[in-house]
């Protein structure tokens, strides 16, 4: 069969998954070297794909009907990195001739090539989950996955302008998914102070606009005066800022994956989530977690006493960060 000339990939809806699926996206590019390759992405993440060579254009994903209208008549094949019925329905409504993806969420009948989620991707990085869908629909995957991110020069300049000169340590005390993933704010503040004193670096607190009150509360609890950037950065600004850091201390979150993709040393504090599936994809990271019987629960809010995070002391994080700093 002649290969498709115009391919669209519907990419995931969470920033961390966007990063973890970059290796699979690069594999699609390699499998169809001559095709036009476009990405259907949530508007919040669309700009990130400017840094991925081989992506020819990005189309905004704004819900089932709008996505169907946006892709109708434009592609020979659509590949789903998402699992939902709705994203498959968009491609079907748009009559994209080839529709490939996992047969999850009862959407098998909407697909022309269906992959099963293989058992061997359980408890492995989700990088392999995204690559396995390619294998499952008959595409090749590369020998070694590449989830790296190289920021555009304008993003680097913006990050430098937002932070200023010198060494910087970033703190990321939020997590979009829910409070179960968040280490204790008072301990972020204490760890920030201790690391600033030990290293001479300045501290920046990043996050979204909704995490601004949390970031300000942590800043207010610190002896040092951190730069509070939560709510002040676009996604590409954030990439520039993260790329300027000497060290990033973070919950399991989208910015954690971005920092790892940039090669920034990351201290990742894990509680409710599965460290085997969503650990940062870089050799320069340290996982800090405490073994508890209920983890990973994958809940948004803790129904008990948040022991997975409460049992991680400031000292645990400072020790991991100090080792990475050196
Ligand atoms: S149920 Fe257990 S793993 Fe889940 S958030 Fe609460 S303490 Fe953590």
What's the short story on this structure?
The protein contains 14 helices and twelve strands. It is an alpha/beta fold and 326 residues long.
How would you describe this protein?
The chain folds into 2 domains: 6-136, Rossmann fold; 154-325, Rossmann fold (3-Layer(aba) Sandwich), CATH 3.40.50.2000. It is built from 14 helices and 12 strands. The chain has helices at residues 15-20, 22-31, 43-46, 64-71, 85-93, 126-136, 153-163, 185-199, 212-221, 235-244, 254-262, 275-278, 307-310, 314-325; strands at residues 6-10, 36-41, 57-60, 77-80, 98-102, 113-115, 168-172, 202-205, 227-228, 247-251, 266-269, 285-288. Strands 3-2-1-4-5-6 form a 6-stranded parallel β-sheet, with helices on both faces. It has a 6-stranded parallel β-sheet with strand order 9-8-7-10-11-12, with helices on both faces. Helix 7 (153-163) packs across helix 10 and helix 8 packs across helix 9 (212-221). The longest helix is centred in the middle third of the chain and has 15 residues, at 185-199. It is globular. The N and C termini lie far apart (54 Å). The chain binds iron/sulfur cluster.
């Amino acid at each position: 069969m002649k290969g498709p000339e115009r391919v669209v990939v519907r990419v995931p809806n969470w920033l961390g998954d966007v990063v973890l699926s970059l290796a699979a996206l690069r594999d699609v590019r390699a499998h169809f070297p001559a095709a036009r390759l476009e990405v259907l992405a949530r508007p919040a993440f669309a700009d990130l794909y400017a840094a991925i060579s081989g992506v020819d254009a990005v189309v905004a994903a704004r819900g089932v009907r709008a996505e169907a209208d946006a892709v109708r008549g434009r592609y020979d094949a659509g590949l789903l990195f998402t699992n939902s019925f709705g994203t498959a329905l968009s491609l079907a409504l748009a009559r994209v001739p080839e529709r490939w993806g996992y047969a999850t969420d009862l959407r098998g009948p909407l697909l022309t090539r269906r992959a099963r989620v293989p058992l061997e991707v359980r408890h492995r990085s989700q990088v392999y989950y995204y690559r396995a869908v390619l294998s499952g629909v008959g595409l090749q995957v590369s020998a070694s996955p590449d989830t790296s991110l190289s920021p555009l020069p304008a993003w680097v300049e913006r990050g430098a302008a937002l932070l200023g000169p010198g060494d910087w340590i970033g703190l990321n005390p939020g997590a979009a998914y829910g409070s179960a993933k968040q280490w204790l704010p008072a301990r972020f503040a204490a760890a920030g102070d201790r690391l600033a004193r030990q290293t001479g670096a300045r501290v920046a607190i990043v996050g979204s606009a909704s995490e601004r009150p949390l970031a300000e509360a942590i800043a207010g609890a610190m002896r040092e005066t951190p730069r509070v950037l939560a709510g002040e950065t676009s996604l590409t600004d954030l990439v520039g800022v993260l790329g300027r850091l000497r060290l990033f201390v973070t919950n399991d979150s989208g910015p954690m994956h971005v920092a790892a993709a940039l090669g920034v040393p990351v201290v990742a504090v894990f509680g409710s989530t599965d460290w085997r599936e969503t650990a940062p994809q870089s050799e320069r990271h340290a996982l800090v977690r405490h073994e508890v019987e209920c983890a990973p629960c994958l809940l948004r809010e803790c129904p008990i006493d948040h022991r997975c995070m409460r049992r991680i002391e400031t000292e645990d994080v400072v020790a991991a960060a100090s080792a990475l700093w050196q």
